[in-house]
Amino acid sequence: MALIVQKYGGTSVNDDERIRIVADHIAHTKSKGNDVVVVVSAMGKQTDNLIRLAKDVSSVHPSREMDMLLTAGERISMSLLCMALSELNVKATSFTGSQAGIITDTVHTKASILEIKPDRVLKALNEGYVPVIAGFQGMSVDKEITTLGRGGSDTTAVAMATALKADICEIYTDVSGVFTADPRIVPNARKLLNLDYDEMLEIAANGGKVLALRSVEFARRHNVIIHVRSSYTWETGTWIKKEDKQMEEAVVSAVTHDTSEAKITATKVPDKPGIAASLFRQLADNAINVDMIVQNTSTDGNTDISFTVPRTDLETALAVTRDALPQLGGTEVLADNEVAKVSIIGAGMKTQPGVTALTFETLASCDINIEMISTSPIRISCLIRQDAVEQAVQALHNAFGLDN
Ligand code: ASP
Ligand code: MG
């Protein structure tokens, strides 16, 4: 008998039929003697629909009210799921994030979990109930309702698993696990059976959409074993856990792509100490997350600085950079929305020379120009034109033999 946290994403609870199927699986898990705690996302595209509604109603979206609005999505699915469980004679009770004791900071729309006080959830468990918790939400230290950023239900699930010392955190979705590349682009991409936290972190941070990045960070910090799997086929999915000796260290495990970033270039800024510090401090103070950065070698004492930011933050980042420019002494600020980042990721590349060379050769053979490069010990990322991204992913998947 184990304590299992099961998180069901939007597609898993898309409609009434799916909710009944999920209830069935929960009942089945429980009938085997396990304790089950459930975390749900909003049904289907509910969150997108609510965001659209907000835009239809007004051009002004106070973040507190956005949080009030969006948390409603998960309340719908949690209560409906409890009703479906009741029909199967499974005792179930729903909890909002705040009722479940999820305490966050005060940053509306992208709050971080500070603490979990799971007393009510534990009490329900002890009384034989299946607690069904609304994902993606919490209550701030100021007692305001907050959300954890898009995809935040994964984080709710992992955080709950940590707080409850669960044996496994199962993340149910519409794909059967984490793949060597996006199967829509690479039809012969393979499902990965095991991944360590570092690889999964890189995958999630570089365009892999199966798990929210924050949830993986949480899992790594607290050693939560995650099983990502399909609620359509229920087959074994991908296990994410601390690397053990039995896990073969593939040189390259996956190729990911990300089209959610934009590139900003500040031209002809003085090449002297303090310039980059000042620019990136101002971006940081505006909560802009900068990803890749390139500074060219200077000609006549001036240099171009390029960096990428999430497209959703492009407007703010441009405004900050334009405001900073006169003081920095640059010439102009350019924005480019047509970029994509391809990354190859693998724990084994730490000890294997030649991975970078093969990556560049592969892109060169496709006549794809590399505009920016960034690396970590287990990742190489290249910024390229967005219209070349599918070709790049296919070629790299092939070059590193990921289909066999
Ligand atoms: N419903 C939220 C979203 O669509 C949270 C989640 O699904 O994880 O982003
Ligand atoms: Mg998700």
CATH fold category name of the domain at 3-174? Carbamate kinase
Q: State the CATH architecture of the domain at 3-174.
A: 3-Layer(aba) Sandwich
**CATH C-level label of the domain at 3-174:** Alpha Beta
Query: Count of helical segments?
Result: 11
**Bound small-molecule species:** aspartic acid, magnesium ion
In percent, how much strand structure appears in the residues?
25-35%
* Class by alpha and beta content: alpha/beta
Q: Using only CA atoms, what is the Rg?
A: 23 Å
Please, what is the average pLDDT? 95
Strand count: 20
- Gap between N and C termini, in Å? 37 Å
List the uncertain runs: none
Strand neighbour order, sheet with most strands: 3-6-2-1-9-11-12-10
CATH homologous superfamily descriptor of the domain at 3-174: Acetylglutamate kinase-like
Largest beta sheet, briefly?
8 strands, mixed
Q: Helicity range of the residues? A: 25-40%
Rough outline: globular
Task: Map the helices and strands.
Blueprint: E1 3-8, H1 16-31, E2 35-40, H2 46-57, H3 63-87, E3 92-95, E4 102-104, E5 113-116, H4 119-126, E6 130-134, E7 137-140, E8 145-147, H5 153-164, E9 168-173, E10 194-195, H6 197-205, H7 213-222, E11 226-230, E12 238-240, E13 254-258, E14 261-270, H8 275-285, E15 293-295, E16 302-310, H9 314-328, E17 333-336, E18 339-345, H10 355-365, E19 372-376, E20 379-385, H11 389-399
Helix pairs in contact: 1-3, 2-3, 5-7, 6-7, 8-9, 10-11
